[in-house]
Design goal:
NADH Oxidase; 2 domains; 47% helix
Length: 331
């Protein structure tokens, strides 16, 4: 009887339990997508409009960035930007992407092949009346070979292979806020879908807040009380409009999280990524305990701090390259 239970009945119950948990998680994520994503495209909502504008003007940026661009391309995105800027004008509130999009649209409309177009004159008059000014250079820029390879490392393997997940940190102090801001600023160069930049980072070095937050995360119990600083990485669901983008926030959030970890490493700050593949119950509970916006999906947490004089880490070896890399060739 014990063998029947162990070999047949228990695996069936375990499989049913795991699949039920997966289904509940999928339904929870779907409910959050319905409630908080931008699928309704309410362009009077400043956040939704700005994410929507990022998609449109990034299309113009790409059109402007080609050495030999199709002179007839870009007009559909130009009209999208124009219509959304009119919505912004109606609200009287202009966000970052509103302002950036007006600069990119202006560059597009003043191209020699576009300047005399009747549409261009109408749109340019509107943009000039808005009077939006940006100190940044939007659209496209020219870079030399030396400029585009400026970040090349002399010993890249040394940088990548010297990063370990550290769970015990120096007692010399927390990472100061200025350095935290520097890390996030560097990580913001991470690519995102249509350049929407929909990440949001919650940071704390408050012990009570960290203890509360980490109590909902599995796997930190032996060292969580030793973490000096904590990131909670999230992504704004308002940035996503199409049903086929239902996984995109996990992709963009994962990319951004790795950038944060490498930005920390570049400054000699150690870190440990903390998984947030949690149950709906835990996700709801943490939102009641700390102030996480409803439309922000938690991707993961990252504990970080300065390494000690002597440190001990897991020797987590890597699989053979041939198990990871497949070179595709035409037969």
């Amino acid at each position: 009887m014990n063998n029947i239970w162990r070999n047949f009945i228990r695996p069936i119950f375990r499989g049913l339990y795991r699949n039920t948990q997966g289904l509940l998680g999928f339904l929870y994520d779907y409910r959050r997508f319905v409630l908080y994503s931008g699928w309704k495209e309410n362009l009077y909502d400043s956040q939704i409009r700005n994410y929507n504008l990022a998609m449109a003007y990034h299309g113009l940026e790409k059109s402007l960035s080609y050495k030999k661009r199709n002179k007839k391309s870009g007009w559909s995105n130009a009209r999208r930007v124009y219509e959304r800027l009119k919505k912004a004008h109606e609200t009287g509130h202009f966000g970052y992407h509103d302002i950036a999009s007006s600069q990119v649209l202006s560059k597009f409309l003043t191209l020699p092949e576009n300047i005399e177009n009747k549409q261009s004159k109408e749109m340019l008059d509107f943009i000039n009346d808005l009077g939006l000014v940006s100190d940044e250079d939007h659209g496209s820029i020219n870079l030399s070979f030396e400029e585009i390879t400026l970040g090349k490392l002399n010993k890249p393997e040394m940088f990548f292979l010297s990063r370990y997940s550290l769970r015990e940190y120096s007692s010399n102090g927390k990472v100061d806020l200025r350095t935290v801001e520097r890390v996030v600023r560097m990580a913001m160069k991470t690519p995102s879908v249509c350049n929407r930049q929909e990440w949001h980072v919650y940071h704390t070095d408050d012990r009570s807040i960290m203890d509360t937050t980490l109590s909902y995360q599995n796997g930190n119990k032996p060292f969580g009380n030793k973490i000096p600083n904590l990131f909670i990485v999230s992504v704004d669901l308002k940035a996503f409009f199409s049903g086929f983008e239902h996984y995109q926030h996990w992709i963009d959030g994962g990319l951004f999280s790795m950038s944060l970890i490498y930005a920390l490493h570049s400054l000699g700050i150690a870190s440990c990524p903390l998984n947030w593949s949690q149950t709906p119950k835990a996700d709801k509970a943490i939102r009641k305990a700390i102030e996480i916006q409803d439309n922000h999906t938690i991707i993961m947490m990252i504990g970080f701090g300065y390494p000690d004089g002597k440190n001990k880490v897991c020797s987590s070896t890597r699989r053979p390259l041939e198990e990871v890399l497949t070179n595709l060739q035409n037969r």
